[in-house]
């Protein structure tokens, strides 16, 4: 029997490659078999063929099971990385997306970290909650009556200008929310109080509104008149329905002469056409 010192010592060099895909697959088994055979020579053949074959089988089995578990973990991680989302298109709102997929608006805002749904731009990815019962439904109709917030109020309104010509309606306009209606009229056309009440504000309004008037009609209902050429009333005054309060202009961010008219109930904008009477 040769001693261990008689076997040549082989040192790997840089650039040496062990070729063959089979060796890569059975690498743990091959290495263990070689080590056991070498040990049997060194110890004088104490390791039997049967024990060697058993150890080789165990090493091969562990290598196969390890590769299977790695593949399954990669597949699982791939599935977890998939996310459901909807790309916001022109004319769509967060409310429509929520109804389309059968989820709540508050849930979409929470998942996508949206504070104000009016700031969501076209092309934004709206991620959906991971639920089995989330199903894509048909798109809701645009002019659906139940989609608008229409609370009851005791206030009876009239049109703020005579022979009104609506140039822009309430709702989504150029992917942004339009909180009122625009009534086209020539420059200097009289603007009337839509209902009796107290002048809550008369002056230069927020950015884009220009000269603006706010009338408080009751504890929860107000009306707004914007882009005025001139305001003819002061804060604190009480006006009757039909009282002349301003003239039509294009102050602020306006492309033409018109009055921007809003009705708000409980501080929320509502569609004025739902509360106005017949055009006069």
UniProtKB/TrEMBL annotation:
<dbReference type="InterPro" id="IPR018392">
    <property type="entry name" value="LysM"/>
</dbReference>
<feature type="transmembrane region" description="Helical">
    <location>
        <begin position="21"/>
        <end position="42"/>
    </location>
</feature>
<feature type="region of interest" description="Disordered">
    <location>
        <begin position="57"/>
        <end position="82"/>
    </location>
</feature>
<keyword id="KW-1133">Transmembrane helix</keyword>
<dbReference type="InterPro" id="IPR016047">
    <property type="entry name" value="M23ase_b-sheet_dom"/>
</dbReference>
<dbReference type="Pfam" id="PF01551">
    <property type="entry name" value="Peptidase_M23"/>
</dbReference>
<dbReference type="InterPro" id="IPR011055">
    <property type="entry name" value="Dup_hybrid_motif"/>
</dbReference>
<keyword id="KW-0812">Transmembrane</keyword>
<feature type="domain" description="LysM">
    <location>
        <begin position="84"/>
        <end position="128"/>
    </location>
</feature>
<keyword id="KW-0472">Membrane</keyword>
<dbReference type="GO" id="GO:0004222">
    <property type="term" value="F:metalloendopeptidase activity"/>
</dbReference>
<dbReference type="Pfam" id="PF01476">
    <property type="entry name" value="LysM"/>
</dbReference>
<dbReference type="InterPro" id="IPR050570">
    <property type="entry name" value="Cell_wall_metabolism_enzyme"/>
</dbReference>
<dbReference type="InterPro" id="IPR036779">
    <property type="entry name" value="LysM_dom_sf"/>
</dbReference>
<feature type="compositionally biased region" description="Basic residues">
    <location>
        <begin position="71"/>
        <end position="82"/>
    </location>
</feature>
<protein>
    <submittedName>
        <fullName>Membrane proteins related to metalloendopeptidases</fullName>
    </submittedName>
</protein>
């Amino acid at each position: 029997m040769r001693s261990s010192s008689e076997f040549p010592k082989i040192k790997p060099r840089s650039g040496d490659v062990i070729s063959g895909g089979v060796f890569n697959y059975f690498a743990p088994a091959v290495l263990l078999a070689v080590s056991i055979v070498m040990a049997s020579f060194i110890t004088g053949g104490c390791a039997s063929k049967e024990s060697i074959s058993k150890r080789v089988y165990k090493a091969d089995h562990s290598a196969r099971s390890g590769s299977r578990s790695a593949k399954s973990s990669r597949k699982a991680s791939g599935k977890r990385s998939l996310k459901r989302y909807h790309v916001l298109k022109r004319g769509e709102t967060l409310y429509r997306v929520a109804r389309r997929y059968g989820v709540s608006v508050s849930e979409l805002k929470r998942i996508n970290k949206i504070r104000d749904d009016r700031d969501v731009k076209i092309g934004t990815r709206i991620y959906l909650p991971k639920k089995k019962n989330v199903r894509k439904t048909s798109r809701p109709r645009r002019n659906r009556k139940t989609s608008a917030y229409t609370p009851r109020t005791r206030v009876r309104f009239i049109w703020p200008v005579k022979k009104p010509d609506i140039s822009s309606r309430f709702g989504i306009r150029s992917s942004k929310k339009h909180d009122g209606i625009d009534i086209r009229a020539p420059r200097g056309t009289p603007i009337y109080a839509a209902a009796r009440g107290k002048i809550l504000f008369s002056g230069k309004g927020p950015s884009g509104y220009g000269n603006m008037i706010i009338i408080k009609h009751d504890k929860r209902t107000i009306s707004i008149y914007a882009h005025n050429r001139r305001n003819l009333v002061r804060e604190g005054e009480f006006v009757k329905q039909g009282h002349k309060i301003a003239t039509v202009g294009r102050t602020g961010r306006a492309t033409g002469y018109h009055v921007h008219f809003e009705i708000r109930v409980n501080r929320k904008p509502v569609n004025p056409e739902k509360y106005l009477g017949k055009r006069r």
